[in-house]
Design goal:
CATH class: Alpha Beta
Helix content: 10-25%
Low-confidence stretches: none
CATH topology: NE0471 N-terminal domain-like
Number of domains: 1
Number of helices: 3
Shape: globular
């Protein structure tokens, strides 16, 4: 299983992620911002409070996204510039 070891939230509601596998990937969170509890993350101040806990990305208020989802629905950073 891929574990998130570092996260950097970006102004465009994406997450730059580093995984235990050595992968460096970009996750676009915008499709999730209109769903259930994740609507709270439309607040950029809250979104940018993302942190790593228990191998995944979390936010205050018990919000998190499974590491498998983050990995499977992200793209390698290298492929963005290619």
């Amino acid at each position: 299983m891929e574990s998130v070891i570092r996260v950097m939230p970006r102004e465009d509601f994406s997450l730059e992620l580093w995984f235990s596998t050595g992968d460096h990937r970009l996750f676009d969170a915008r499709p999730y911002l209109n769903r259930g509890v994740f609507t709270r993350l439309q607040d950029i101040v809250l979104f940018k409070q993302a942190f790593v806990a228990l191998d995944t990305v979390c936010w205050p208020g018990d919000l998190d996204i499974a590491p498998e989802t983050l990995y499977d629905r992200s793209v390698p950073i290298a492929s963005i510039s290619a």
